[in-house]
Amino acid sequence: MKTLFKRVVTAALVGTLALTAAVAQVKPLKIWVYDNSRIDALTQIGKDFEAKYKIPVEVSMVDLGQIKSQFLLANGGSDTADIAIIPHDNLGGLVENGVVLPVNLGRKASNFLKPAIDGFMYNGKLYGLPLSVENIGFFRNTTLVPQAPKTWDEVIAIGKKLMAEGKTTQIMGFPDATYNVFPLYTAFGGAIFGKKADGSWDPHKVELNNTGMVKGLSLMVQMVKNKEAPGTIDWDGAHVLFESGKAPFILTGPWAINRFKTAKVPYAISAFPAAKKGGQPGAPFLGVQGMIVSAASKQAALAQAFLTQFMATEKYMNQLYLADHRPSAWKTVNDKADDSDSKGFAEAGTNAIPMPSIPAMGYVWDAWGNAAALAFSGEKTPKEALDTAATQVETQVAAKKK
Predict the structure, then answer these.
(1) 137-283+360-401: which CATH number, 3.40.190.10, 3.30.360.10, 3.10.129.10, 1.20.120.1810?
(2) CA 137 from centroid of its chain's CA atoms
(3) For residues 383, 385, 387 and 389, what is the CA-based torsion angle, rounded to 10 degrees?
(4) The overall pTM is greater than 0.70
(5) Residues 10-45: tens digit of each pLDDT
(6) Could you give the angle at the alpha carbon of 326 between the alpha carbons of 89 and 35, nearest 5°?
(7) How far apart are alpha carbons 66 and 291 in whole angstroms?
(8) Ramachandran quadrant class, 76 (left: phi over 0; alpha: psi -120 to 50; beta: rest)
(9) Which of 145, 311, 386, 393 has a CA 20 to 30 Å removed from the CA of 334?
């Protein structure tokens, strides 16, 4: 009788399940995670769910590439999880292939940061439970630069002065010329795609070569020509320059914190410089991680209810934050993070832009990176290089449409 009661409670939790389904044998909910930082916390949350509803939860670590390929196969059964964690920029292709289901948070949506919700919106529908947000920040060596510069002109002026005094060898290195340096482009009005009337990204409005993008790349090229930045794009080399004290600035993310602490470099994180005094700070990409439900799940309604009615609480969102320490997508948990690094990333991400999750974004990275390399080498001007990149993306988008 107790078991029957628990199953009836399960039916109430899910809402859409009939009573006959409630009393039937329910299989374990399977959750796939692509990194190991959250496994223990999710396993404990699963145990709480099982204790309350007598439905076990199995949490496994699965490579992100395999998660995507298995969901795209949509073959259900034992080969596909009911729920998986993905970065939001992987969402578009999954939605367009019909292999993930919408998630209805109802009034609970107001408990989440709006950019986190926006990240998992696609064509006007929400397709995931946001868990955490992530953006890069503007790092400075506080011994060399006590106060954060407000504009890129100030960055260059401070950097040149330190070089002239022999305190540094360069202003900064570029970890890449795309993702990590996006706030430099956006400070001048750079963008990747335009938007449709409903606010969603429009793959047919490629802005990779707009005026702001050209100005941003031109500034980088000028720094290279002046030997104020390395002529090669080198992720590790850029970090070494900063942690060795040879460069006072770097644009990078939370993944660099441990190496900077190990190197004992004094640093602070702040908002990105603007193009001009009083202008808008540069905007980084915002990454959102969240949980999606497979359309092939044989208990999809239960999986959706697990996310929206069980997981979507301050208690469990805080549990995940404590396990992983990525800034939480849940407002009150996010607000409680008061360490200097969290505050710095929050300041840097105030105007962060959710990375476009449309499949066309996959065409951008190589074209954009190649354009920067051509501009750095002098083979093409920044405008010529970005014009070529934009044309490449437009061609691939058009070919895909056919």
Answers:
(1) 3.40.190.10
(2) 13
(3) -150
(4) yes
(5) 544 554 443 234 434 678 999 999 988 899 999 999
(6) 65
(7) 15
(8) left
(9) 145
